[in-house]
Amino acid sequence: MSAVLTPTPSSAISLTRYLIEEQRAGRINADLRLLIEVVARACKSISIAVGKGALGGVLGDAGTGNIQGEAQKKLDVLSNEILLEANAWGGHLAGLASEEMDTSHPIPDVYPRGNYLLLFDPLDGSSNIDVNISVGTIFSVLRAPDGVSRAEDKDFLQAGTEQVCAGYTTYGPSTMLVLTIGHGTHAFTLDREVGSFVLTTRDMRIPDDTKEFAVNMSNQRHWQPPMQRYVADLLAGQEGPRGKDFNMRWVASMVADVHRILTRGGIFSYPLDAKCADKGGKLRLMYEANPMAMLVEQAGGAASTGRQRMLEVQPTGLHQRVPVFLGSKHEVETAVRYHHEFDAEQP
Ligand code: AHM
Ligand code: MG
């Protein structure tokens, strides 16, 4: 019987080699290359902590809350510390911002500073940590404004179009890093024996059309009229105006839901609802929506608030929330059309 498991071939392209080749091609500089390497290394440490589960004593609540008023899990806090510690000393950053911290985090004075800003949601999908379902880290990189070496909150308030890099790591059956530096979206799988991310899908492509949607249906009664109508038409299936049957998936870990969409298409939405209307939405623009929007657009998909291209939203706050629609291009355009049609009917 032939072996089922085969070692990673020596010809495989590691993340390090991919980044060096991108640097040679003039698409990134050495600082950004090293910054991505440091983030990837931190994600490997988070992957190890997540993988230990109950054996590592890392499950359960931390007993603290974040600025959004959400209870923090031990792994939220640990992942945040791992990313902060790993990125403080490299000399590539003018500042960091995290979903788990009230304000941006300056680089300690003992270390040199650089020209980039790093933003992250250290462990997204917190409600899934204790039940052994995929969670992930989401990150993006901006340039510090000219002349800024010690970034303040306002320096991070740049539209998503300014991102020079975005990515996530999904801690699932395998650990994968999905990355864009503005030249396609590429997936790397962690070879746990070697400890190295290996390029496994170059140029992920999201099909334009789909028959799969992702939304938390329990919020249905709280949605606005255009979302109510859009999903009612999806559910009506072949007999309805869409003329085809749709399937539904909802992991409640954005990283896992977006990873499925990058792999086989679909639409992900977390719309405005009556519960989160005063906050502007549920998901965070800077740590979740914008990085995912860049990854999805780079794979041929689309990302919108329902009324505006996500990457063109001008942020007004570090922890700003937005409605999110992203994935297969034609399906996102359809959801946006429902919003525009509703708006046009308003007096
Ligand atoms: P988190 O950053 O606190 O984990 O919240 C974000 C998560 C997303 O990963 C996911 O899409 C969504 O919240 C799930 O929300 P809900 O539990 O309302 O379905
Ligand atoms: Mg999150």
Index terms:
single chain; 347 residues; alpha+beta; Fructose-1,6-Bisphosphatase, Chain A, domain 1; D-Maltodextrin-Binding Protein, domain 2; 2 domains; seven-stranded mixed beta sheet; five-stranded mixed beta sheet; 7 helices; 22% strand; globular; binds 2,5-anhydro-1,6-di-O-phosphono-D-mannitol; binds magnesium ion; metal-binding; magnesium; FBPase_C_dom; fructose 1,6-bisphosphate 1-phosphatase activity
Can you put this structure into words, describing what you see?
- By secondary structure, the chain is α+β, with helices and mostly antiparallel strands.
- It has two domains: 15-201, Fructose-1,6-Bisphosphatase, subunit A, domain 1 (Fructose-1,6-Bisphosphatase, Chain A, domain 1); 212-345, D-Maltodextrin-Binding Protein, domain 2, CATH 3.40.190.
- Helices cover 29% and strands 22% of the residues.
- The protein has a seven-stranded mixed sheet, with helices on both faces. Strands 11-10-12-16-14 form a five-stranded mixed sheet, sandwiched between helices. It has a two-stranded antiparallel ribbon with strand order 1-2.
- β10 (212-214), α4 and β11 form a beta-alpha-beta unit.
- α2 (30-52) packs antiparallel against α3 (74-88) and α4 (225-236) crosses α7.
- Bound molecules: 2,5-anhydro-1,6-di-O-phosphono-D-mannitol and magnesium ion.
- Magnesium ion binds at residues 99, 121, 124, 288.
- The site of 2,5-anhydro-1,6-di-O-phosphono-D-mannitol has 11 residues, from β4.
- InterPro entries: FBPase_C_dom, FBPase_class-1, FBPase_N, FBPtase.
- Substrate binds at residues 124-127, 216, 282.
- Homotetramer.
